[in-house]
Design brief:
Layout: E1 7-10, E2 17-19, H1 21-35, H2 41-49, H3 55-61, H4 66-76, H5 79-84, E3 86-88, E4 102-106, H6 110-120, E5 128-131, H7 143-152, E6 161-165, H8 168-176, E7 180-184, H9 189-192, E8 200-202
Helix pairs in contact: 1-4
Keywords: Hydrolase
InterPro entries: HAD-like_hydrolase_sf, HAD-like_sf, HAD_sf
Pfam family, one: Hydrolase
């Protein structure tokens, strides 16, 4: 089905790459110290991977102010250390072989994303990329997706595209932008606590061939 599409959009964290657990645990320990509220392994996993959907909604449910959390979180992240602790999923290699235009739409902030792309040597996989901000909007908002489609030159011209990601927000963004959605499940429904639907549901991109 890879050849069915005229262009591809992809999420980054949890979809193409992941970070060693030791890094995630250390960051949440430091953030917890700042906020005076510790995070269990399960809570850290939920927030890092967005397993329950909106991270802000989850924080509010736990009684944690999202603005305070993200300020502390971004101040405690070290871009170079994170890049060194980030690894590429084996099944992500298919992206390098795509002949169609490829775009990246990620919630990973630019100051973190850029060192990761360089360290893994995958910058040239993407013809356009966007790191979401308050100004661009966040997935499942279609605006950041449509922005990258515009940069790729595939907006409003009848091209058939797909967005692949590991979260429900990726599926929502794809559908809201009129694209097909591929959900890659890196955890399993039991650990996620829910089933994420998509036009395609896979555990590995290898299943697409």
């Amino acid at each position: 089905m890879v050849s069915e599409y005229d262009f591809w959009l992809l999420d980054l964290d949890g979809t193409l790459v992941d970070v060693e657990w030791s890094y995630t645990r250390e960051v949440f320990d430091r953030v917890g110290d700042r906020l005076g509220r510790g995070f269990t392994d399960r809570e850290a996993e939920i927030l890092w991977h967005g397993l329950t959907g909106s991270r802000d909604h989850q924080l509010l449910e736990w009684g944690v102010d999202p603005d305070a959390f993200w300020t502390a979180f971004h101040e405690e992240e070290d871009p170079l250390v994170r890049a060194e602790q980030t690894y590429l999923h084996d099944d992500a290699a298919f992206v390098a072989n795509l002949d169609e235009p490829v775009g990246l739409v990620t919630h990973c902030q630019e100051f973190l994303c850029e060192p990761v792309l360089d360290n893994l040597g995958i910058r040239d996989w993407f013809d356009a990329r966007l790191c979401c901000t308050e100004e661009t909007g966040w997935k499942p908002d279609p605006d950041p997706v449509q922005s990258v489609m515009h940069d790729l030159g595939v907006a409003h011209n009848g091209h058939r595209g797909v967005l692949a990601g590991d979260g429900s927000c990726d599926v929502g963004a794809a559908w809201n932008a009129g694209l097909d959605a591929i959900h890659v499940e890196r955890f399993g429904h039991d650990r996620r606590g829910r089933c994420v639907l998509g036009d395609y549901r896979v555990q590995s991109f290898d299943e697409l061939y």
